[in-house]
Amino acid sequence: MTIRLMLADDHRMLREGLGRSMREQGFDVVGEASDGAEAVSMAQRLRPDVILMDVTMPEMDGVEACRQVRLDLPGTQVVMLTMHADQEVLASAIRAGASGYLVKDCSTEEIASTVRLAASGETALSPLLAASMLNEVRKWDKAAAAEEERVVTKREEEVLQLIADGCSTPEVAANLYISQKTVKNHLASIYQKLDARDRTQAVLLAVRMGIVHLD
Predict the structure, then answer these.
(1) pLDDT for the residue 22
(2) How far is the C-alpha of 19 from the C-alpha of 13, rounded, in Å?
(3) 192: burial class by Cβ within 10 Å (0-12, 13-18, 19+)?
């Protein structure tokens, strides 16, 4: 069965060249989109088996377009194409539901192989990219979990620690390169979150909770 392939890239020359190469590899190239928004609407209309999606496009970037396509068309697989193996984009792509991730300097044969793997429901990544992406996703997930567990924000922790160290409001502002008004806003937020009356009580509660430490 011939794989129905759609292309999404804002560079016309690259898109047309890729289309010719993929047809020569035996794919049925059913459509070519020039931006992310067009890729989403075209995919909904054509329902391709696989989309080769550029990461950087106008109107809507490839990762967001991938996310929308995968939500609307779970049977359509998306392989991301990019100029660089960026760690952050790798993590975003896997969260968006991408089945593959390729850098644009790869060979036509590698692209064709990746598309076939994606069409069969397999994750199609080179071992190096796969390891890189998985490590990044794990790192981001740990950071997200840690952030969810925070009673106060990281900046509020910094404000609390400086106050615990004996700094005044102007000194906290100077240390963190923020205005005194911003410090007061942080303190108001801290009081509310910790149910504290003043900075002394806030520091004592923060020490008990392990948020800050006294020397």
Answers:
(1) 95
(2) 10
(3) exposed
Distance CA 173, CA 184 (A): 9
Alpha carbon dihedral 52, 56, 59, 60, in 10-degree steps, equals 70
Global confidence as pTM = 0.60
**Is 44 in contact with 89 (CB distance < 8 Å)?**
no
Question: What radius of gyration do the chain's Cα atoms show?
Answer: 25
Chain centroid to CA 116: 25
pLDDT digits (tens, 9 = 90+) for 90-125: 777 777 888 888 887 788 888 998 899 889 877 666
**In the chain, domain spans:** 4-145, 154-208
CATH class entry, domain 154-208 = mainly alpha
Cα 170 to Cα 108: distance, rounded to the nearest angstrom: 61
Q: What is the pLDDT of residues 84-97, one digit of tens each?
A: 666 677 777 777 88
Domain covering 4-145 in this structure, CATH number: 3.40.50.2300
Bridge partner residues of 29 (DSSP)? 5
22 and 66 in contact (C-beta within 8 Å)? no
Give kind and range of the element (H or E) at residue 32.
strand 28-33
Check: CB of residue 112 under 8 Å from CB of residue 102: no
DSSP run (H or E) holding 51: strand 50-54
